[in-house]
Amino acid sequence: MLEKIGVEVVLCAPDAAAGGRLAEAQRPAAALVDVDLPDAPGVELARRIAALPWRPRVVLTSADRDAGRALDANGDRTIVFVPKEELAEEPLRRLLDTG
To answer: What is the distance between the alpha carbons of residues 61 and 4, in angstroms, rounded to a whole number?
Structure first.
């Protein structure tokens, strides 16, 4: 889906632990993170990636529209939440675009 909207997928991780390691090693400019990961909440991984020194853009997603409330409750503005049904829309392309 990301490639369909013109986003180059550089890496993909099966869980939060691998996602954190890959982000630190590969230094992506942006990341798309699912809320539901097998080993840790995606919100935690999103915050970890957003806090990296080069400040990558982070988009958090879930099939549950209310999942973004965890970000709002903490006043977290470094991560953008997009419900899964809206991922294929053009705004995602703009959110992930770092050029």
So the answer is: 18
What is the reported pTM?
0.84
pLDDT tens digits along 10-28: 789 999 999 999 999 999 9
What does the radius of gyration of the chain's CA atoms come to, in whole angstroms? 12
Nearest to 17 by CA among 6, 5, 25: 25
**CA terminus-to-terminus distance, the chain:** 20
- CA dist 50 and 76 (Å) reads 10
Q: In sequence order, what are the residues at sequence separation of 6 or more whose Cβ sits closer than 8 angstroms to the Cβ of residue 1?
A: 87, 88
